[in-house]
Amino acid sequence: MNSAVTIVIGGEPIAKGRPRMTRRGFAYTPAATRKYEARGRLAAQLAMNGPAPIAVPVRAEITIDLPVPTSWSVKRHDPALRSNIRPTTKPDCGNFIKSALDAINGIVIADDNLVIEVAAIKQYAPVPQLTIAIAPLAALTAQREITRPAEESAA
Question: Tell me: the pLDDT tens digits for 50-102?
Fold first, then answer.
């Protein structure tokens, strides 16, 4: 599969939560993060609809559409939806990116280390969701061996 794939995870985006520790020292991912990534995996499976994961370097464009805070007045609410006001509160884009890439890992892309370019935007929107657009790139991977012509290797 060498065409672009777009995954839309509906509902309010959840950023990757920090690992938690039990009293016995076991690390675990918070329940909210696990549930959100499960929703993301389902959305990725529906978007892929069968083909094998992309196994070449890719570019990921992630749009994080957040709801406007309900405490804001209409005077402030409307400009936020027109992109005049951007969310600068926590969580940051990096944690949303981690959550998104973990959700599609192994389904849309063979491994998230194949993501070599990332563009992310956090904005207010009337419908909260997280959109991931994955596009394969024409690039060689560092692990690929350089093949030599038969004459050179025979010498």
Answer: 889 999 999 999 999 999 998 988 888 888 888 778 898 899 999 999 999 99
Question: Which residues on neighbouring strands pair with residue 66, listed in sequence order?
Answer: 124
pLDDT digits (tens, 9 = 90+) for 4-21: 899 999 999 999 988 888
CA distance 13 to 9: 8
Residue 111 sits in a domain whose CATH number is 3.30.1330.70
Give the strand pairing for 58-66 and 115-124.
Answer: parallel
Q: Which domain holds residue 117?
A: 5-154
Domain count, the chain: 1
Q: What is the pLDDT of residues 22-43, one digit of tens each?
A: 888 888 888 999 999 999 999 9
Query: What's the 3-state SS for 47-96?
Result: HHCCCCCECCCEEEEEEEEECCCCCCCHHHHHHHHCCCCCCCCCCCHHHH
